[in-house]
Amino acid sequence: MRIARFSIDGNVAFGAVEGSSAPGTTDGLVLDIIKGIPFADFELSGTKVPLSKVRLLPPVLPNKVVAFGRNYAEHAKELGNEVPEAPFAFFKPSTSVIGPGDEIAYPSFSQELHYEAELAVVIGRMCREVPRERVKDVILGYTCANDVTARDVQKREKQWARAKGFDTSCPLGPWVETDLDPSAIAEGLTIQCTVNGQQRQLGRTSEMIHPIEDLIVNISEAMTLLPGDVILTGTPAGVGPLSVGDEVAVTIEGIGTLTNKVIKRG
Q1: What is the DSSP letter of 72?
Q2: Pairing of β 2-8 and β 11-18
């Protein structure tokens, strides 16, 4: 099931996305409004709204976004970094999250903004110290993410809070796909990033150094994960610069496409 969060006529709701459409369009897609929230038992209301008539919002509002860096060997290499022996985590605040179609505001304190296409895991239930064999039980589903990074600030300040945590630095969407298990697909899922229609990144989730199960075991040893929390799993090689006016799109096989435009921060 594809679960979207949306607004219509000033009201916010969740809905199940139904139908199919041509790439880059919403023609033919409708939302069956959910009675309740997707983190508990819910029913479909049967009330359907064309997707073209609503505004898609970030699919969840996470309490925290836990991101794992250098989880693809070629990406670590392209930036001249060592591959970490253990998962390497950092945080992006909830205020960094935006949704599909929202604008990425180029921060005034950076001159080198980069895209990073990533598979995002959405947590479905409160959990702590999750054993590896139970990881699938705590996952609601998966969505697309862009770990937008002020690369010059990251290099200069070493600590990544400002470089990766500024407002609008965490686009998520377009929805959460619940009927997907990347670890069950030997070749993994394709992750692609385009800028103004030109391909910049192309990788597969099977290239992760530390798989999803290990990432969730690692972070849940330290802290409680809450429903709606998001885990970013790292980016393939090919990261590069964004400029004001660029349109950046992250496409993940089996999920969909997340598109955002870069604007000058006002």
Answers
A1: B
A2: antiparallel
Give 86-108 pLDDT, tens digit per residue. 899 999 999 999 999 999 999 99
Answer whether 143's CB lies under 8 Å from 177's CB. Answer: yes
DSSP H or E run through 212: helix 212-220
Instruction: Read off φ and ψ for residue 158, nearest 5 degrees.
Output: 70, -55
Q: Please tell me the distance from the alpha carbon of residue 183 to that of residue 233, in angstroms, as a whole number.
A: 13
- Under a CB-based contact definition with an 8 Å cutoff, are residues 232 and 67 in contact? yes
Contact 150, 162 (CB under 8 A): yes
CB 233 within 8 A of CB 203: no
* CB-CB contact of 164 with 149 (8 Å): yes
In the chain, the domains with their CATH numbers are 2-56 (2.30.30.370), 65-264 (3.90.850.10)
**Tokens matching residue 149:** 């990074």
The encoded tokens of residue 53 equal: 């008539």
pLDDT tens per residue across span 25-66? 677 899 999 999 999 999 999 999 999 999 999 999 999 999
Distances (CA, A) of 25 to 22, 28, 162: 6, 9, 34
Confidence of residue 73 (pLDDT cuts 50, 70, 90): confident
Pair 3, 17: CB distance under 8 Å: yes
